[in-house]
Design a protein that fits this description.
The strands form 2 sheets. The protein has a 4-stranded mixed β-sheet. The protein is built from 4 helices and 8 strands, in the order βαβββαβαβββα. With about 150 residues, it is α/β, with parallel strands linked by helices.
């Protein structure tokens, strides 16, 4: 069973990243010998994000710059408790310097994206869990039949 999620993100400006994610409600983790120099751990519930200076990121992945074709890219998604919270998180991100991305609203699923100042793509989503609780587990109405 997965009990927590950990993501490491390279950033060009560690202090700017700390300020940006703090404005989104992430808690700065306490200094620890488990968090290397040039990095900061951010915590929100069971999600942990380590923002790393580009130099520190290159240590485990090699000399390629983050975000190039030689580096891997992802969209990191976080689940929130309501459609209103989706909007609130993205609006805070935009006020903190993010660029707003795509909006999807299917009634039972609401999602909005943003790109953080260092270029990382985030998706904030809410999914109505009522169909699964009512016995519809396994059915995902947003997916097309294969």
């Amino acid at each position: 069973m997965i009990t927590a999620d950990y993501v490491a993100l390279p950033v060009a400006d560690l202090d700017r990243a700390r300020r940006f994610y703090a404005r989104l409600g992430w808690e700065l983790g306490p200094p620890s010998r488990n968090v290397p120099a040039g990095a900061t751990m951010l915590v929100r519930g069971a999600a942990h994000v380590m923002v790393l200076s580009e130099d520190r990121h290159r240590h485990p992945v090699g000399p390629e710059s983050p975000g190039t074709a030689a580096d891997s890219s992802v969209v990191t998604a976080i689940d929130v408790e309501s459609p209103a919270e989706v909007d609130a998180v993205v609006e805070r991100a935009v006020r903190a310097g993010a660029t707003e991305g795509e909006i999807m609203d299917y009634g039972f699923l609401r999602s909005r994206g943003f790109q953080a100042p260092d270029g990382h793509h985030w998706e904030v989503l809410w999914v109505d869990q009522a169909p699964a609780r009512a016995g519809g587990a396994g059915e995902q109405p947003w997916r097309r039949p294969s």
